[in-house]
Amino acid sequence: MTGPVPRTRGEELLLARISAAAGRAHLGRRLATYPVTAYRPRTGPFRAVRRLPGLVRPGRPAGRPNARLDLYEHGLTVAVKGRIHIVRYATTSVFRHRARPRRAPLAGPTAPAGTAVPCAAAPAVVHTLTDVERKRLVLYGGPVDGDPEDGGPADGGARAWERELERAVVRAQLPGALAALDRGERVVFGDVWMTRERVGSGAGCGTPWAQVQGIGGKDGFLVLTGVSGRQYRLGPVMPRIPNVFLFRTLAEHCRREGAD
Q1: 103-113 burial by CB neighbour count: b if 16+ within 10 A, else e?
Q2: Which residue, among 61, 59, 40, has the nearest Cα to 51 in the 3D structure?
């Protein structure tokens, strides 16, 4: 029976640097570690996502991991290209995108009978986060079953870090958002906003929660369904709404109170 593979000197030094950075940021106890594909975009969060297909090879759900992701109680660290980036759950903004990798070339007309035709890699969820320096950091997630912009689930246990990231952000930011609503303040998610009484987008007057039957996703947009059954889009496309999963949690809470 063989034991665990010992760490190399480089791995030991990297772990020491990560632990020191997490300690200085008071992130708490380390919970899990994952290999990921990550990079710091030089452009805006939505234009940067166009680079992602170049990281993907045909037949693979994501590019070869080039970074180490460590999840902690109060945040996470990403070690990539010699740098350690720190994200705090209580202050980060997470934008979710859907990236389609390049399609693999099809077999030519002269290929022998029975030649396998490579398939395009599955679409993947991309998370663009803001770190403690308020800079963007892109994490390439895994393939999706359905459309993540419409609330489709991520694929299997390999996507554990994606689910935990969203749960942790909700745990950290939901109490403050509820307290702001109790004080009569407007809580804003990009162009979308809500108060205890209404939900809306832009400069509109919004819709009273008592008239909202539900808020879901459709064709990449948030869609509000009224008690009459009428539907209309709420704000811009969901990839442009920060922490949209927190918005939906908060909206359901307000909708239930409005119905009561």
Answers
A1: eeeeeeeeeee
A2: 40
Backbone Cα Rg of the chain: 21
Which residue in this structure is represented by tokens 């996507």?
Answer: 159
Q: What whole-number distance in Å separates Cα of residue 238 and Cα of residue 150?
A: 9
**Least trusted range by pLDDT, from 81-95, 138-152, 180-194, 235-249:** 138-152
pTM comes to 0.79
Instruction: Summarize pLDDT for 73-111 with one digit per residue, the tens.
Output: 999 999 999 899 999 999 999 999 887 654 544 444 444
3-state secondary structure of 86: strand
Residue with tokens 């640097």: 17
Only one residue has tokens 């934008």, namely 95
Of 138, 143, 169, which Cα lies nearest the Cα of 158?
143
35 token code pair: 């290999």
Q: Who contacts 187 (Cβ-Cβ below 8 Å, separation ≥6)? A: 177, 180, 181, 193, 194, 195, 250
pLDDT in tens, 37-72: 999 987 655 554 444 444 443 333 445 889 999 999
Output b/e per residue, 152-190; b: 16+ Cβ within 10 A: eebbeeebebbeebbebbbebbeeebeeebeeeeebebb
Give the separation between CA 249 and CA 116, rounded to whole angstroms.
45
Q: Which residues does 101 contact at the CB level (< 8 Å), separation at least 6?
A: 52, 53, 56, 57, 58, 120, 121, 123, 124
